[in-house]
Automatic annotation (TrEMBL):
Domain Bacterial Ig: 2-58, 64-144, 151-231, 235-313, 321-401, 405-483
Highest classification ranks of the organism: Bacteria, Bacillati, Bacillota, Bacilli, Bacillales
InterPro entries per the UniProt record, alphabetical: Big_15 (IPR046746)
Protein name: Bacterial Ig domain-containing protein
Amino acid sequence: MAKIKLIVNGTEKQAISVSASPYQYYAKSLITSVTDIVYVVALDNNGKELDRALVKVVQKTTSGTITANDFQKGTDNKVIGTYTGDIVKVGLSVNGTEYTRIPVSNGSFEYYANDKILATTDVVVITGYDAAGNPLDSQIVKVTTKASTTGEIQLSSYKYGTDSKIKGTYTGDIVKVRVTKGGQTYSTIPVSNNVIEYYAKNIVTSVTDVVMMEGLNSEGKVVSTKQLNIYTGDGTITADSYRIGTDQVTGTYTGDVKRVSIEVNGTVQSAIPVSGNKYEYYAKTLITSPTDVVYAIAYDATGRELNRVPVTILDKTPPTGTITMESYKVGKDKQVKGTTTGDITRIALVVNGVEQSKIPVTNNAFAYYAANLITSANDKVSMIGYAADGTKVTEVDVTLTKVTGTITADSYKVGASYLTGTYTGDVTRISVEVNGTEYQTIPVTGNNIYRYFLRDKVTAVTDVVKVYGKDDLGNKISEVDLVLTN
């Protein structure tokens, strides 16, 4: 077999030369439907059909996800978010009406929607589409207004007979706090710097009092309410800052504390026994977001709450790592190789903006097959490192180098069987062109000397003959004019 061609729906396409198996035939613009009937045909040097096979045509599977930030009516002009996978366009629909789809790039999008989203009751959906217009993922966009404010109060326990102020912290849009007890509302005071101190010695008059604190936004709306824990026993608790993804909430305690628990978003977890004035409470599966509201709570031997303190929640430490790349010689190398450090467990090659599939890293090293992906030293190539949870850690460029090499050709006597010559460098294949027709490409033997059967191709000293040296991809990297003699 010297050449192959395609037949698509009965139409013959251009024949190309092949030298080895497997072969490649560019067909993206030729095969456009899964209903196309396609054959690949093997030909000899004279174009005679040797064999043919039916090509199975299947639909390419695309996938992707999309996320969108909340849209605050009266403040935001655009719906902003991110996407992954094969998404190339994003469309917005409001109350069932879809607006123009816009192209997106680099994993993020901004869709102007100030004239489309008119009320907080609007049902807004953002959808990601692939290049064929197929919807891949949708998400409902939450619509809020400036008045839809949020915030949270956290209160430290109040020791009756000793403390005079209710102390705590707040988050979000809270600008004022007030206290209620037994149906009576006490004065409202401003707060700042996320710290609460409210004089309450005249309010808390019994350990059995039910005292509530309310946090208000600038509109006077109550956005958070918490009950004050009032205690008389001797016992305090502290809590270290907790980072998402770690195992334990830790801290210390004093006095009559015998058991410790934590409260997460209003749910009190089971209490554990403690000793030695330090405690560790397993919370990895309980605290999952930096916005979680968490308290550490101390109890005496009877189970009575003695003290509670808020736990400061820190976001998890982002994964880190580096990639070190070896240079890649186009036309010679088959694999892109390199090493990794840190949290990188998978890598993906990017060629001319198209990210390829991810492969695992083994023992901090990788070898990514790229002979069919990188075809030119002018390609833009990079490598992305990912952590185990899919987080992108880093991306580095791959340095591409060109193959080099030379060939020589001994003078050829017309009628002789073989052309002979030498080669150097990255030359791995030889072909001959006679009077504008290029003939079969053959591999070289590895000893820097080649032979090419030429008797049936050159018939006169007036023939114009060129000899080409090629790399592994079949690219010409050296050529010489052949001298013919009688």
